[in-house]
């Protein structure tokens, strides 16, 4: 930028110099603001604006994702309720972000299951109650095909890994899965992605959200 | 004054005994060492799955092996380890036996080794307590009440 301005000055006559100098100072003054403002528009990782998935929340109410959340930032994690370690940490991180941001009205929190067969709305509701989740926090499940299409669209992978049998002969299965929390902007574009279960994640998400809100 | 001391002695002694009974349960002489605030059981709903976290230090002068884990709130209890798969996914795998050298500890902690409480027979809510029992080859049965906490 400075090089450009210097070349322009050379090509003009002496009467123009005060004006050019003023312009140069103005640009130098505004340049940092321009750079800061660029930082507030992070690169879009994926645009879900045209996507639409018919799902159910923990109250068995139909939810269209992401359409029903447009106009709000969305902090979204991916879990299954029979995973008490890693997925509990993801759920807890979502809750911690919400609590530390003082329950912001412009940010909605979602935990979506990749185990729709077992994680029915009522199971998700009890899971949320056990964790003490608050308002503006939605659990998502639904028809398996629709859930897995949605998971594919946000690049969340899952795969049954291990099966255990209870004393009464019932089979419990466990799932290998992506460890992920992501942030959608108000236009349903994915703008941030993180490893979901790590303890430092809430602070990073809050910092990133505060830059763009 | 003498009567007061006598009264104090007969009141405090049973209290001390009752405290000791909370620390040890079963037939073990080994002590369960649970430092810090990380000892807990995750909240979960009935028929669901929870995890227990604690630290056990082997205070015996010989290596010991954890043979099994149990809890009255769960139909199936196992030691699991969280790990990252070659494909970059998070998974769990069962650890059937754990050897603890003398003076060493096993840490059941978030994101690592943990005690899986599966097929829960009741809701576990914050404020509840859950008994977890560890069966060692040498130390015998160690049990502890853990708070249900996020």
- Class per helix and strand makeup of chain B: mainly beta
Strand order of the largest sheet of chain A: 1-10-9-4-5-6-2-3
* Sheet/helix structural class of chain A: alpha+beta
Radius of gyration of chain A: 24 Å
Name the overall outline of chain B: globular
* Mean pLDDT over the residues of chain A: 87
Query: What's the helix count of chain A?
Result: 6
Percent range for β-strand residues of chain A:
25-35%
Any idea what the radius of gyration of chain B is?
A: 18 Å
Q: Which residue ranges of chain A are poorly predicted, with pLDDT under 50 across at least 5 consecutive positions?
A: 1-12, 33-38
What's the short story on this structure?
The complex is a heterodimer of chains A (213) and B (150). With 213 residues, chain A is an alpha+beta fold.
Word description of this protein:
The complex is a heterodimer of chains A (213) and B (150). Chain A is built from six helices and ten strands; from the N terminus they run ααββββαβαβαββββα. With 213 residues, chain A is an alpha+beta fold. Chain A has an eight-stranded mixed β-sheet. The longest helix of chain A is centred in the first third of the chain and has 23 residues. Chain A is elongated and about 90 Å long. In chain A, 38% of the residues are buried. Chain B has 150 residues and is mainly beta. Chain B contains one helix and ten strands, in the order αββββββββββ. In chain B, the strands form two sheets. In chain B, strands 1, 2, 4, 5, 7 and 8 form a six-stranded antiparallel β-sheet that branches. In chain B, strand 4 and strand 5 form a beta hairpin. At the A-B interface, helix 3, helix 4, strand 7 and strand 8 of A face strand 4, strand 5 and strand 8 of B.
